[in-house]
Amino acid sequence: MYASREDIGYDFGDDSKVGSKPIKPNPNIDGGWAWMIVLSSFLVHILIMGSQMALGILNMEWLEEFNQSRGLTAWVSSLSMGITLIVGPFIGLFISMCGCRKTAIIGGILNALGWILSAYASDVHYLFLTFGVTAGIGSGMVYLPAVVMVGQYFQKRRALAQGLSTTGTGFGAFLMTALLKYLCIEFGWRNAMFIQGAVSLNLCVCGALMRPLSPKDIVSEKYVVRSNSEDNQAKALSHSAETIKSNGALGAEPEKKKEATNEEVLDSVQHTESGGKSRDGRSMYGLRILKTVSQLTVTVRNGFAIWYSSYFGAASLFTNRVFVAFIIWALFAYSSFVIPFIHLPEIVKQYNLSSQNNIFPLTSIIAIVHIFGKVTLGIISDLPCVSTWNVFLMANFTLVTCILTLPLMQTYVSLAVVCALIGFSSGYFSLMPVVTEDLVGTKHLANAYGIIICANGISALFGPPFAGWIYDITQKYDYSFYISGLLYMVGIVFLLIQPCIQKKQPREKPTEEAQV
Fold first, then answer.
1. Residue 198: what pLDDT?
2. Taking a C-beta distance cutoff of 8 angstroms, is the pair 225, 165 a contact?
3. Lower CB density within 10 Å: C or N end of the chain?
4. Same domain, 339 and 200
5. What are the Cα distances from residue 338, in Å, to 36, 359, 415, 451?
6. Over the stretch 452-502, which tens digit does the pLDDT of each residue have?
7. Are both 195 and 324 inside the same structural domain?
């Protein structure tokens, strides 16, 4: 149905040029410091995504403390998860201007501040601002760079690298659930959030490990040698990627002119500074400030130009129909995974299974199997004879089936089996950056993946409150799972339809030319 990820258009260039230029590979690509990047991303997933998956513990504490409805209280967790992902396109702007390292360090400070301020919450609405918005934005500023850096450092083993780094979500959900439960019992939920804020400062260390590659190393990725035995089933997607590439070339000339103008401005400032050595110290200090401001202006302007062209310019990502279908899928998919994590503790309590769940929580089962799912799916997807896209679709079908059948299970064993399947099939999250990169290329990965996680954020933002609202009306969570599962299925249908449409277009072209 779909070709391997190498066929999807990994490099936007001409296939005839591939392998024609021998370039000395950087030892840090697929090795060396690349594994430190994986470690950094792994820790980021533990501290951010793992903590968010453990918010069911704090959600129960907030229900008892503030005595608000389940729907309103669920908005705190949803805002944190949703905003972490929704700010993706805007974090892409920060990355274009400041780079991944600085963006992640600033985000780590902001995330820790959100946790600490939330310890002093007087009501749920206070948590909306401190935990939902402040900690959410900080999380987004660390999460996107962590994913993008892995994509930049790996070429041959991207799926495995992303799988290993994103297993931090599973480890984090397991560890943070136990940690938050212990801290809440021993110190209360307020002190637990304060301590978690201190722990979150380690995100700054993770950001410091994100050493940027030189532009030469990133550009050289397009000359990676590809096997001649690869099949060409996915020429449609290569065509979509090449459309973005060709359109992007239209704006290359004006950008070069802008850069030349900016360099002239800086040169003039430097010339003025060198000619003014005889002046007093105050004038020299003013010139240095002017030079710094000019450099900052150039950096901001160039970063904004790249960000703007990706979304609204001639090289807009939205010209790729398969990528647009991917966005529609993301709008419905993530809530189906988030809802069980937020509301499973309440479902277990409703079925009088708390004693069994306390021995081995269902959310921990999801988290542990989720780890193996990501690694296994990553290894399978990196096999030369296996299509990453097909693995991605099969995992989605399994997950939506589990979501639709979960309300039918009312014993601990049956719930544990379904939760294990949910954990394994949701391992496809490690393939999302790989599929995105295959569709748009490494150059556009930060902005493209920012759009995808933004769509996921919208899904996460409205999913849990919707489930809580349905429960307030029906006193059951069943309909929440049924509705979210059906919407999820709609998104999968979009993924199936668009590639079929795209495949037909290249076949029609030669026929028309032959007739002419």
1. 93
2. no
3. C
4. no
5. 29, 22, 16, 19
6. 878 887 877 777 777 777 777 877 777 777 887 888 888 888 888 765 544
7. no
- Rounded alpha-carbon distances, angstroms, from residue 10 to 4, 6, 175, 242: 10, 6, 36, 10
Structure-model confidence comparison of residues 466 and 511, the more confident one = 466
Report the pLDDT averaged over residues 362-373.
Answer: 82
Tokens of 153: 């450092």
Residues 352 and 475 occupy one common structural domain: yes
CA nearest 316: which of 497, 451, 506?
Answer: 451
Tell me, what's the pLDDT at 494? Answer: 82
Show the domain range for 350.
Answer: 312-504
Choosing from 154, 178, 213, the residue where a domain stops is 213
Mean residue pLDDT across the chain? 74
Clarify whether residues 48 and 184 are in a common domain: yes
Q: Please say which residue of 179, 213, 247 terminates a domain.
A: 213
Question: Buried (b) or exposed (e) across 298-320, using 16+ Cβ within 10 A?
Answer: beeebbebbbebbbebebbbeeb
The total of structural domains in the chain comes to 2
Q: In this structure, which amino acid lies at residue 182? A: Y
318 and 207 fall within a common domain: no
Cα–Cα dist 435/159, whole Å: 9
Question: What's residue 92's pLDDT?
Answer: 77
What average pLDDT does range 152-178 have in this prediction? 82
Query: Which domain CATH number covers 441?
Result: 1.20.1250.20
Does residue 459 lie within any of the structural domains?
yes
Please indicate, yes or no, whether residues 209 and 336 belong to a single structural domain of this protein.
no
Q: Is residue 452 part of a domain?
A: yes
In 119-211, which residue ranges form alpha helices assigned H by DSSP? 124-127, 136-153, 158-200, 202-208
pLDDT band at 225 (very low <50, low <70, confident <90, very high): very low
- pLDDT at residue 204 greater than cutoff 90: yes
Q: Is residue 253 part of a domain?
A: no
pTM beyond 0.85, yes or no: no
Co-location of 201 and 323 in the same domain: no
List, for residues 425-461, the tens digit of each pLDDT value: 888 887 888 888 888 777 777 777 778 878 887 877 7
Residue 358 shares a structural domain with residue 489: yes
**Cα 440 to Cα 422: distance, rounded to the nearest angstrom:** 29
| CA pair distance 57, 285, nearest whole angstrom | 54
Phi-psi region of 203 (alpha: psi -120 to 50; beta: other; left: phi over 0): alpha
Alpha carbon separation from 495 to 291, 329, 492 (Å, rounded): 50, 7, 5
223 in a domain, yes or no? no
